Automatic annotation (TrEMBL):
<feature type="domain" description="OmpR/PhoB-type">
    <location>
        <begin position="141"/>
        <end position="238"/>
    </location>
</feature>
<feature type="DNA-binding region" description="OmpR/PhoB-type">
    <location>
        <begin position="141"/>
        <end position="238"/>
    </location>
</feature>
<feature type="modified residue" description="4-aspartylphosphate">
    <location>
        <position position="55"/>
    </location>
</feature>
<feature type="domain" description="Response regulatory">
    <location>
        <begin position="6"/>
        <end position="123"/>
    </location>
</feature>
<dbReference type="InterPro" id="IPR036388">
    <property type="entry name" value="WH-like_DNA-bd_sf"/>
</dbReference>
<keyword id="KW-0902">Two-component regulatory system</keyword>
<dbReference type="InterPro" id="IPR011006">
    <property type="entry name" value="CheY-like_superfamily"/>
</dbReference>
<dbReference type="InterPro" id="IPR001789">
    <property type="entry name" value="Sig_transdc_resp-reg_receiver"/>
</dbReference>
<dbReference type="InterPro" id="IPR016032">
    <property type="entry name" value="Sig_transdc_resp-reg_C-effctor"/>
</dbReference>
<keyword id="KW-0804">Transcription</keyword>
<dbReference type="InterPro" id="IPR039420">
    <property type="entry name" value="WalR-like"/>
</dbReference>
<keyword id="KW-0238">DNA-binding</keyword>
<keyword id="KW-0805">Transcription regulation</keyword>
<keyword id="KW-0597">Phosphoprotein</keyword>
<dbReference type="InterPro" id="IPR001867">
    <property type="entry name" value="OmpR/PhoB-type_DNA-bd"/>
</dbReference>
<dbReference type="Pfam" id="PF00072">
    <property type="entry name" value="Response_reg"/>
</dbReference>
<dbReference type="Pfam" id="PF00486">
    <property type="entry name" value="Trans_reg_C"/>
</dbReference>
Length: 242
């Protein structure tokens, strides 16, 4: 029987790595175990895992630094989903992870069944995109152009003024959702439900971190902007020039 994909597990605690491996294999995933971070980038290139399960406190390199390195890899490897599995559970640690582009965050000790559920939730997006790309050419395309920004959700590609902007998959999904509903205000809870479809431990601060990243990466433009409505949420506004 073929597996549902490879999961790269980077954790220096043998007992935890073994438990994760058993649950992954029971759920029909192939587990690749690494106790250190030095081989992670090479393993991603060679094995092409569907997801990376990454500890933050590794003996040779910080998981934060590894996450940043993965997000700087050439396409399509820079979009490999990442879940932090770590004992560092403070809000500041979670926010730092989300700012670096991690897809989810689970604190040790953890329920292995919850871990599998979170892995499936993160991978559901990849499966959905693959299905959409296999549809006939006349199917509706998830593509938007507003002013100088073009968002292609099929290819997970964003360009501004004709230049590619490197965003994480979740940042692209959030941007696409907001631009699909110009001038409509969404609360942080709304965006968690519509875009994440999961009850993240990071809560509404996850949304704030992703919006902050979008603004930083997209820059300022006179045709559109992401507006903050203090105490309420966010909206995508198109500037009407007279």
């Amino acid at each position: 029987m073929s597996s549902d994909g490879k999961v790269l597990v980077v954790d220096d605690e043998p007992n935890i790595a073994e438990v994760v491996r058993l649950y992954l294999e029971h759920s029909n995933y192939e587990a690749i175990i690494l106790p250190r971070g030095q081989e992670v980038l090479r393993t991603i290139l060679n094995e092409k895992p569907s997801l990376v399960l990454l500890d933050i406190m590794l003996p040779d390199i910080s998981g934060y630094e590894l996450c940043e390195q993965i997000r700087k890899m050439d396409a399509p490897f820079h979009q490999t989903p990442i879940i932090f599995l770590t004992a560092k559970g403070e809000s500041i640690d979670k926010l730092r992870g989300f700012n670096l582009g991690v897809d989810d965050y689970l604190v040790k000790p953890f329920d292995p069944n919850e871990l599998i559920a979170r892995i499936k939730a993160v991978l559901r997006r990849t499966i959905q995109v693959s299905t959409e790309l296999s549809q006939p050419q006349n199917s509706s395309r998830k593509w938007l152009e507003i002013g100088n920004i073009v968002i292609d959700l099929e290819q997970y590609r964003v360009t501004v003024g004709g230049k590619r902007v490197e965003l994480t998959p979740k940042e692209i999904e959030l941007l696409y959702f907001l631009t699909s509903h110009p001038s409509r205000v969404f609360t942080r809870e709304d965006l968690l439900g519509y875009v994440w479809n999961f009850d993240f431990t990071g809560g509404t601060r996850t949304v704030d971190a992703h919006v902050k990243n979008l603004r930083k990466k997209l820059g300022q433009h006179d045709m559109w902007y992401i507006q903050t409505l203090w105490g309420i949420g966010y909206s995508f506004e198109v500037v009407q020039h007279v």
